[in-house]
Every structure is written in structure tokens, then in C-alpha cells.
Amino acid sequence: MIATGQISENVMRFTAIGAAGALLLLSVSTSLMAQRADNQIDPRSVELVRQGRAALAAGNIQGAGDALETALAVDPRNRDAYLVLAEIARKNSLPGKAIRLYREALSLEPNDTAALRGQGEAMVAKGAMERAKENLAKIEKLCAKVCTDATQLSAAIAKGPPVTTAQAEAVPAPSATPTAKP
After folding, report:
1. Has residue 9 got a pLDDT over 60?
2. What is the rounded distance in angstroms from the CA atom of residue 129 to the CA atom of residue 48?
3. Is 25 exposed, middle or buried (0-12, 13-18, 19+ CB in 10 A)?
4. How far apart are CA 164 and CA 107, in angstroms?
5. What is the reported pTM?
6. Nearest CA to 46 among 84, 88, 102, 89?
7. Which of 35, 99, 110, 154 has the highest local Cβ count within 10 Å?
8. How many of the other CB atoms lie within 10 Å of CB of 66?
9. What percent of the chain is predicted at pLDDT more than 90?
10. Torsions phi, psi of 24, nearest 5?
């Protein structure tokens, strides 16, 4: 026969385990309820990106940047804000900053061919040709057929990095005075 003390000891063990399990379920369900699905971007953030694009189209780069950074503060999962900020960085000849912003966008959606293309073009501008070619290979793998992102990045790679002012000054200019023949 089982003694009464053993029964109460077994009941207490199961009660402690049950209580711990209940607390675990409660904490997990509470944290899951607080999170939104990845595809549900805060509408305020979406509106700020729209305002940023409008400001950029009107030539107000500072206003566009401010609106886009605010959009990311409202919802840091807004990939579109990263993409537009990266475009602004590229237009301002800041390829390193553009590469970082495209990396942020790609951390949210690794298969975004537009972000891969933009990052690849920024890498070309920075002179990182091998890394740009890696991005091209990723795009070609993602596209079942020829796509414009692959075509554009391929053209940028073929063109190569832009000539910098220092490189242009290093090339000797043709002599303007004719040499005398003996």
C-alpha cells in the first residue's frame, strides 16, 4: 500500500510542475499577442514614407530624409523606408551608407531583388566589384527569367566604378603645344 505521505508528495510535485508550465504558457502567449505580423507595417509609418517620397520628388531631400527616418522610428520593419533612404544616400554619393541601408532592408526580406540590385550598384560605386557580382548571382537565382534588376546591375558592373576626381587628375592631359620636328 502507498502511504498517505507519498501521495501528498507526488501531488505537490505535479502541482509545482503544472504551475511552472502554466506560467510558461502565459508568458509566451502574452508576448505573442503583443507582436504584430511582419507584413503589418504601422499605417503611420507607411504614410510617412509616402510623405518622404513626395518631398523627394519635390526636391526637398532634407524633408524626405526626416520623414523617412521618422517612419523607421515609428516602425523599424518598414523596408520601403530603408530603400528610399538608400536611394537618397546613393544620389548624395554616399555608397557606404547606401550599402548599410540596403543591408537593413535585406535583413527584413532577403529575396528583395530591388534591394539586391541597389546594394550591388552601390558596391560598384564603392569599387567592390566581386561583392556586386555576388548580388547579381543572387538576383539571377531568384528570377526565373531575365528581370530588369539583373539587367541593370549587370550593366552597372560592366560599366565599372565611376572615375574619381583623384583618378582623373592622375591621368596626364594631352599636350597642347605641338612638338617641333628636326
Report:
1. yes
2. 34
3. exposed
4. 31
5. 0.69
6. 84
7. 99
8. 15
9. 63
10. -60, -50
Q: If you write DSSP's letter for every residue of the chain in order, what string do you get?
A: ---HHHHHHHHHHHHHHHHHHHHHHHHHHHHHHHPPPTT---HHHHHHHHHHHHHHHTT-HHHHHHHHHHHHHH-TT-HHHHHHHHHHHHHTT-HHHHHHHHHHHHHH-TT-HHHHHHHHHHHHHHT-HHHHHHHHHHHHHH-SS--HHHHHHHHHHHH-SPPPHHHHHHSPPPPSSPPPP-
Residue whose grid cell is 535583413: 107
Count CB-CB contacts under 10 A for residue 180.
Answer: 5
Place of cell 503589418: 40
Segment 57-113, tens digit of pLDDT = 999 999 999 999 999 999 999 999 999 999 999 999 999 999 999 999 999 999 999
Place of cell 592622375: 170
The C-alpha cell 612638338 sits at 179
